[in-house]
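Let us practice reading a record.
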Amino acid sequence: MQDEVQDIVDKFIFDIRAGIYEPDDKLPSENELADLFKVPRMTARKAYATLQELGYIYSKQGKGSYVKNRRQQIPLVLSGNMSFSKKMTEFGYNYQSRNIFCEKVPYNKKIYQELEVGEETWVYRIGRLRLIEQRPIALHTSYVAVSSFGDIAEAGRHITSMFDYYNSKGYTELESKTTELSVAFPSKNERELLECSSLVPLLMLESGCVDKRTGKILEHTKTLYRSDYFTYVI
């Protein structure tokens, strides 16, 4: 059954990418699909469920399955020093940023080295969930040392924009350190936060933020983006 499901999924992905199906085109019913591929209806249903999890199609209750418009994806600019919040607002999106945690983290060699602090220093991680049109699209986590920002344990509970926080501290010229890009599949917690299936890969960016004027390291950042919601501008 799994091979038959994959054959159907591969066929539709190829056809959608080739433009054979346009955005919002109605797809064959499950019965029609089963007849077309000579498979049980359950196999057809599983294929459509997989395509929906991958972000290629969507369903309407009682009406069937339709091709998702992937051309309306959000442009993600991976360069420049403008905050993510400001970029989304300037693009005209209905954008929200929610603070979802602020907590002290155990010693992590890589993070402490990136922040250039010793093991005796407390480091907090501040998480913000990014939403467009009420849809969670990204999870930003900033690691900040108490030795650099003494109020971060308390202030971090309310921060929705790290750029605004740094600006309030007098750091107005910010730049990113070298950024590492990789692809990861979501953990259970990440799936719940980003409301995605285990089949949707996440683009993971790791970087640091530095005050351009003084060279002071402000934070180390890990960001997870839902890959099915973005196009990438480098």
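A brief commentary: Residues 56 and 68 are 5 Å apart (CA to CA).
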